Amino acid sequence: MKCFDCGGELTSPQGITLKICPFCGFGMNTNNIGHKNRPEVKLYTHIQTHGQIIYKDKNRLINLIDELFSDDEGLVRTLKVAVNKNIGEKLYNLLSYNSNNQKRELYQISKFFADDNGYELYHAKEIIRVLALGLGIQENVFDNKVLNFIDNNDNLPTIINARGNTVGNIVNNGLVAKQGDWLYYIDNKDGSRSNKYKNKHKLYKIRVDGGGQTKLTDDFCRHINVIGEWVYYCHRNGNLYKIKTDGSNRVKLSDDNCSYLNVFPDWIYYCNESNEKKICKIRTDGSDKQTLNDEESFDINVVDGWIYYSNRNDGYKIYKICIDGTRRIKINNDDSSFLNVKNNWIYYINDENKSGRFCDEPSSKVFDEWLNNSSFKNGKLYKIRTDGTCRTNIGDIKCSFINVVDDLIYLIESPTSFGAFFGQLSKICIDGINSTVIYSKKGGSYINIADGWIYYYESDYDHSYNFMKIRLDGTEHQLVD
Question: Are 331 and 346 within 8 A, CB to CB?
Fold first, then answer.
């Protein structure tokens, strides 16, 4: 091994690759990205000391940029803009992707950065390149031929999701997902209450401006995830499928009865109801299925390399495991449901009376059970840090369904005189203040949020329901059609 900066030659002990040259202290594994004075090389060298995790800490990364590039005011200013736009964290998340998906994501990140700040695309790509190479992403990912192909390919979505849906939507049955200028959603306009779910939950897409509505499949769909040119979903029988965003090439990926899909470019994580709700993962092409735990699991959130879940085997306490199934850690001692992991906090409903769970699909048979289930009358809103500290009750509010977006928790309240399907739609700040009713004329359930709209089931006393949407401010309440 030879340091390309000082020229020192050495042999690594037992074949171990050295990251730092023992002669000059310069980074050894820089993939020939250039001289140490180049910004990406300087950044890479110091990241070997600070650790890649610094990319998830805005303040520390900005301080490092100030320290390294104090003689280049323009570079510092632009890099700071990128870090404050969460580019560092976005790049950190790419470390687990394969090179092809990294190429696509890097282009989308560059385009977002350019469009959001008024930069030319070539300039935005160069800034992203500095940060990415500094993190240790390989030089060959920046093949200009590939980026130019993506830039000029009109068949690819303008924006490609880094994950298939939000965790808040996923624990609420994944009824709506957004990618770029398109919404993907289930529609019940083809069915009626008399045939219940027989003809409902067909998969549609529509542009955010209301045009281009297209039915993609007649399958009963839930747990929708969208990444690139594929929509992933669970069929009514639970089997895992994917279909192209134009409705072609429907493919079965697994015979497992799946729920709580968390889809990423390379892997799908899910609860396997065919095997006692154990958590599994499978590649997006249907290969390499792996079982990750031995517990009956609910409400899984895959966030920052961890899988958070409610463990029925231990009274629905919150646990987390690494995405490879290692390092099982207990988080709390509450009976917890509807987990939403966001910014190192877990928001959840604490069923203090420990009165049980409910099934995924509303029907007249189970409606009366829900109506009398005190789980939905006494579920209080809590949050706890992902390391298990700072357990906090959020306001004096009882609820049945929650979805956390930005600094607000959208929820279905659970009045003591009714069950889950009669609670009013409300919102509250994540610090527990400013509780506001959004819509109270009819009850609701399963809150999904996308593009400034709340999508949910609206229920009435006669056990009928419709799939509705309403703006986040409570205006334009209407049927989804």
Answer: yes
